[in-house]
User: What shape does this take?
Amino acid sequence: SASARQSPARSHNSFRAKNFSVMPPNVPTIVVAGTSSGVGKTTVAVGLMHALHAQGCRVQPFKVGPDFLDGMQHAAACGRPSINLDGWMLGRNGCLAAFHAAVAASDADIAIVEGCMGLHDGREGATDDGSTAQVAKWLRAPVLLVVDAWNLARSAAAMVHGYQSFDPEVMLAATVFNRVAGAAHGTWIAQAMGSHPGTAAVRVLGCLPPDKRIELPERLLGLLPPAAAVAAAAAASATGNSATGKAAGDGAAGDGDGAADAAGATGGARLAGVVPLF
Assistant: This one.
């Protein structure tokens, strides 16, 4: 009928007319942020995506900023294209429209947004323009902060307190401490987090030990794409030049979805339990 033929256009126009600036996410949403680049937020984000995808959840991935390499890891982990949310280029309405459109198109059960650089890093120093914090506030989504704790103990809690108090509008809900050396180290960090009222309410979601098997290989401008990472790991494994390459190659060899899938299978399964690893 004529009305049936017109309905998609009406639906499309209705979607475009929505005021996304006042619409909160209509699915559970997590923003995975870091204290800086290189702390393991891609490993944690990809692990969560893969673990939830493996449990049958429809996961819609996102990446703050224009980076496309991390998005390739997301797609390998959960089978859906990752969508960029760049506050500086798209603005608030553009980011929220892109978010809602992607969630609707994938009929997602959950959205996982990986941040860029440190939580508050963006276009300039005076404002949060272009930062992960800005996008998290627009989405009204809780933040999972990844902290590299290799050379920290009680000071890790002081660092989290700074991130928790710097911008009260950011909902810092939980932390994952990466590269924790052992059970005692994890206990000290948990004790420190619980010892101060500024951090006691921030949940310690877990502690990840150093594990070469779930490291994602990098190059100058960012992570290797999944296919290139698998090829590099296989070459290193074949020649015996690197123990890291052997571990990564062994992890990738049993699954054809690439390095991100291998990282997700290892790291994500651990994170999925939402318990400390030690």
